[in-house]
Amino acid sequence: MTIRIVRLGTPRAAGEGLRIGTVRRPPRGVPRAQFASGNWYDVWLPLLAPSEATVKLGLGAQTDREWAAFAKRYRAEMAQPDASRVLDLLAALSHSAHFSVGCYCAEESRCHRAVLRELLRARGAEVR
Question: For residues 46 and 24, what is the distance between their CA atoms, to the nearest angstrom?
Answer without folding.
Answer: 5
